[in-house]
Design goal:
This protein has about 450 residues and is of the alpha+beta class. Helix content is about 25%, strand content about 20%. Helix 9 runs antiparallel to helix 14. About 10% of the residues have low confidence. It holds the Pfam family Pkinase.
């Protein structure tokens, strides 16, 4: 659910934040407005949106697509919108019938419509990389089944002040690993290792095309669907597309579509699926990054056109935290963290303060990195990281001088003995240790990791 605040005395639409407020379904009148008066007498209007904030201008950072069920879009009226599959901060994804399908197993495709705000940045050549990345990944005869496939792309005019929408057409995927985890926690280890192997293949292929993903996480790992055209059409009849009750927006009353992803699959089905690296919206060319310092978490995101963050905090590599140069090895660090997270459902590193030790979030996560890897940061690395002096002394020790505990990966893994058998602890820890080297120069490539014996027998 999205929450926005409007100050009527000086209209300023803020970026959406999550809220727990509920929207009533007992009336046809919008109930998502809340009025309050500030200390200065200014009337504030709070708007709660159950999904994406429709009817909010692209010029203010919004502009989600407002498609109608049955609407025909694309060149030569090629795609007919059937339902909404889901949405994110910068796009919404829709199931569509391909009216000109030729060789696909299914007549249906997924259409990812970027918001008017993001499309505007793309049209200006500003910091929007996903379309370029997908073109590069899908160029030529040699592609990978473990990276998102781009079938088509086009741009259309949106409604009102929504701006234009750049649309990316891909196959329909069955879901993502986060949803699979939520429905089946924990996953059998043989399934987790299959997911990780397929993900690593996707990373290796992306790196071979000079693409650094920079945003590896459960949400960005899709799996394929085996649903045929007939099965999809039966699903649409059994569970027809729906809309939420009316909501008030800056552009008047809107009716957002309910997100209705494909039905969840069983563990047995999941063991046969192909897993795919998706969402290259944060990706970058490796050749552009070898001389680029990492930007800090405190900077605005790429969507604002003023900077970028790199990776979810708990999966972020040390060189990024320290403001140093970074390259494709940030993906290897994130992958090493995901090995633990996908198998155990736990968090390897926690991005939070430690009041007992007097450490802020970054100091605390640097301490965790030292304790878990059993390594020390070397002077050669710290001297080229602009922010290292904020956290480390001249002797490469943390300034706050916390106690360095002996807490290797094996101890963390052993806590999950119901998932990882005793014989599997050391091989898993050894593999993680290869990925999670503090010095990025010492991390192996994705291609090298694919040859690790830990993946022996995994398909």
């Amino acid at each position: 659910m999205r929450h926005l605040l409007l100050r009527t005395a000086s209209p300023l639409w803020r970026r959406p934040l999550f809220t727990l407020a509920r929207i009533s379904t007992a009336t046809c009148e919008p109930t998502n407005q809340r009025f309050s008066v500030g200390p200065d007498g200014t009337v504030n209007v709070d708007l709660d949106f159950v999904e994406e904030a429709l009817g909010m201008p692209a010029a203010d950072g919004f502009g989600w697509a407002r498609f109608e069920f049955g609407q025909v879009i694309g060149p030569n009226q090629r795609y007919t919108i059937a339902r909404k599959l889901g949405w994110g901060m910068h796009s919404s994804t829709w199931l569509a019938l391909d009216n000109m399908y030729i060789s696909l197993a299914s007549k249906y495709v997924a259409v990812k419509a970027l918001t008017g705000h993001i499309t505007g940045l793309l049209d200006k050549g500003m910091a929007v990389w996903e379309p370029d990345a997908l073109r590069l990944l899908n160029a030529g005869r040699r592609t990978s089944p473990h990276c998102l496939q781009l079938l088509d792309e086009f741009e259309i005019q949106g409604v009102g002040a929504d701006g234009r929408h750049h649309c990316l057409v891909t196959p329909v995927y069955g879901g993502d690993v986060r949803a699979l985890h939520a429905a089946n926690m924990p996953l059998p280890i043989q399934l987790s290792k299959r997911i990780l192997l397929h993900l690593l293949r996707g990373i290796a292929y992306a790196h071979s095309r000079t693409i650094v993903h920079t945003d590896l996480k459960h949400d960005n790992i899709f799996y394929n669907t085996t649903m045929t055209t007939t099965e999809i059409e039966k699903w649409l009849v059994h569970d027809p597309p729906r809309r939420h009750p009316p909501e008030m927006s800056k552009d008047g009353i809107v009716h957002s579509a309910v997100s209705q992803p494909p039905p969840m699959i069983s563990i047995e089905e999941a063991l046969t699926r192909t897993y795919v690296l998706a969402d290259f919206g944060s990706g970058k060319l490796a050749t552009e990054l070898w001389t680029r310092p990492a930007l800090l978490i405190s900077l605005p995101t790429i969507a604002c056109g003023r900077g970028r963050t790199v990776t979810t905090p708990s999966l972020r590599a040390p060189e990024v935290y320290l403001g140093g140069e970074w390259d494709e090895k940030v993906d290897i660090w994130s992958f090493g963290c995901l090995v633990f997270e996908i198998i155990t459902c736990g968090r390897l590193f926690r991005y939070q303060t430690n009041e007992n030790l007097g450490l802020d979030e970054i100091e605390h996560i640097l301490l965790q990195m030292i304790c878990l890897t059993g390594e020390d940061f070397r002077a050669e690395q710290l001297t080229v990281c602009p922010l290292a002096a904020e956290y480390f002394n001249a002797d490469c020790a943390l300034k706050q001088d916390p106690e360095i505990l002996d807490w290797p990966f094996e101890k963390r893994i052993e806590r999950w003995s119901t998932i990882v058998p005793p014989a599997g602890v050391t091989p898993m820890a050894d593999f993680m240790r290869r990925c999670l080297r503090l010095d990025p120069m010492k991390r192996p490539s994705a291609e090298e990791l694919l040859k690790d014996p830990w993946f022996e027998g995994v398909k």
